[in-house]
Specification:
Number of helices: 14
Shape: elongated
Number of strands: 26
Strand content: 25-35%
Structural class: alpha/beta
Distance between the termini: 37 Å
Strand order of the largest sheet: 8-9-7-10-12-14-15
Helix content: 10-25%
């Protein structure tokens, strides 16, 4: 019965209202037991003759619970809700599905991998781009080129604005002249070939989301640092070193120079290779991790146990490497994809992904080369969360946060039978689970405590409907930087739900988070004040 109270009084357990979508003149009222609605309306009108010709009973919604729809009552809502026989009243609203944030990119429906990793649910909390402190999140992508001016990539391509392009001067003193759009370690400039493989990888990580164009990246607004190699390992090592140098510069100058690189993506490798033969390569990952960079790498496109046959770089033992194999649309490991209980951490969608191609076109892309960028994009999305341990320590304790991100990714996987005993985690990437874990939630389908929060966006006043069986609830409101704005404690009513009306006129326009907590559960919801 208690859940029914929430469904009826809130009306919005599986839907949400939008500002300005109330049905003009219609009110829904919950009357005390024993009150006859028609007699109440007659008596109510007798107190004010003007009511008799306006308020009408439109429909009884539940005779058992005494809930009714009134028409032509909009002008009298303030009076009706103060009537002692009225338990609750509210406007009638147009309703919309909620709990998912799907972008309007026209080819999004073809991006099955984003649905599989529950990206829309994660986007309902954050769509990425910036940390709560305003740091621009960057993924360094080592590839054989990229059409970075592609219509769906140009806006999210990282530019080094501390460098004046084409002036022949190393303006930011990082050792590279005119590195305005990343760097090409083959041609020693910032020009990049229009490479199909690299353009595809870049699109999965960070094609601009929700821009009515093409596809969406895992992170809608992350900046992608384009680092081009030709075919040599020496160029790859140069690329890693550049990424490390730029993140270290960012940490040391508190963001004045460099780039806030949180992850690298490596959709390449050497089959049947042993890490003992590549000590310089493997050592780089610890160096990258020391400044806060986690490194997504792809397993080989061969059905082999890498522990036995070998592989690079997935066999590197650095704690700052996270290696993924390839899963398909039926949520199974692709046959021609490497595995290993120790070295391959998890699976990620890859087979037949849909992404960007050079020349403002789009198409399919597969293999483990497609799995790694799903992972790199997910790592970068976590950095935009308003979680104090991430926000406060990302620059002061960067290695600690990189380790935390790896833990959140691995603990958040969905168990997959074909990955059991073939990967370290036994599961496939689920970015929403990782987001939920970071915010102290279970993230695996438990009923929400907040059954609705409206209007959202708001001009400074919101209503929260909370479903709980019993017990005290604490509520905190934080801003996008994780700073505590207010804290309150509540005891749930005997009806099994709690309604809280908050006036938030003291808060400036921006993004805020409501965190509810009991002894056993936590729940976080985002709202916007404009």
């Amino acid at each position: 019965m208690r859940r029914i109270w929430v469904l009826i009084v809130g009306l919005l357990f599986v839907v949400q209202t939008l500002p300005g979508q109330a049905i003009q003149g219609e009110l829904i009222v919950l009357l005390q037991n024993g009150i006859d609605v028609e007699e109440w309306l007659i008596g109510y009108a007798a107190n004010d003759q003007s009511h008799s010709s306006t308020i009408q009973l439109g429909k009884t919604l539940s005779s058992q619970m005494n809930i009714h729809l009134l028409q032509n009552a909009g002008n009298f809502h303030d009076e009706i809700k103060l009537d002692p026989v009225v338990i609750a009243s509210q406007p009638n609203y147009i309703i919309y599905k909620r709990n998912r944030e799907e972008p309007d990119d026209p080819f999004y429906a073809d991006q099955w991998g984003l649905e599989t990793i529950m990206a829309p649910e994660a986007w309902s909390i954050t769509t990425g781009g910036l940390t709560p402190q305003g740091d621009t999140i960057v993924v360094a992508i080592l590839e054989t080129g990229c059409d970075y001016l592609h219509e769906d990539l140009n806006e999210t391509t990282w530019r080094n604005y501390n460098e004046i392009p084409n002036d022949g001067i190393d303006n930011d003193n990082n050792g590279f002249i005119d590195d305005f759009v990343g760097w090409n370690f083959n041609t020693n400039n910032d020009e990049h070939p229009l490479d199909f493989h690299g353009t595809s990888v870049n699109g999965i990580i960070g094609a601009k989301g929700d821009n009515t164009i093409g596809v969406s990246g895992v992170n809608w607004s992350v900046k992608r640092m384009v680092l081009t190699y030709n075919s040599l390992l020496s160029e790859v090592i140069e690329g890693y070193a550049y990424a490390k140098m730029m993140r270290e510069m960012y940490n040391q100058t508190n963001g004045e120079k460099g780039a806030f690189i949180v992850a690298t993506n490596s959709s390449f490798g050497i089959n049947e290779a042993r890490p003992d033969d590549f000590p310089v390569w493997c050592a780089l990952y610890d160096s990258l991790g020391s400044v806060g960079i986690l490194n997504a790498v792809a397993a080989p496109n061969m059905d082999i146990n890498v522990e036995v046959i070998g592989d690079m770089p997935s066999r590197c033992t650095s704690e700052f490497v996270i290696a993924t194999t390839n899963t398909d649309q039926i949520d199974a490991k692709v046959l021609q994809a490497g595995w290993g209980k120790v070295s391959i951490d998890l699976g990620s969608p890859g087979d037949n992904s849909f992404t960007t191609k050079p020349g403002n076109i789009y198409g399919s892309f597969g293999g483990t080369s497609s799995s790694a960028p799903h992972l790199a994009g997910a790592i970068s999305l976590l950095y935009s969360l308003p979680e104090p341990e991430i926000t406060i320590n990302s620059k002061s304790k960067p290695a600690l946060v990189a380790r935390l991100m790896k833990s959140l990714i691995l603990e958040g996987v969905d168990p997959i039978p074909s990955l059991e005993d073939r990967t370290r985690s036994g599961g496939r990437l689920n970015v929403f689970n990782s987001v939920a874990l970071a915010l102290g939630l279970d993230g695996r389908g438990d009923a929400l405590m907040i059954s609705d929060l409206y209007p959202n966006p708001s001009r400074g006043a919101i209503t929260i409907l909370i479903e709980r069986s019993s017990g005290p609830i604490s509520m905190e409101i934080t801003n996008s930087a994780g700073q505590l704005m207010s804290r309150s404690d509540y005891q749930e009513s005997s009806l099994g739900f709690l309604r809280i009306d908050l006036a938030l006129h003291d808060l400036r326009p921006g993004i805020y988070f409501i965190k509810l907590e009991t002894d056993a559960e936590k729940q976080v919801r985002k709202f916007v004040i404009f």
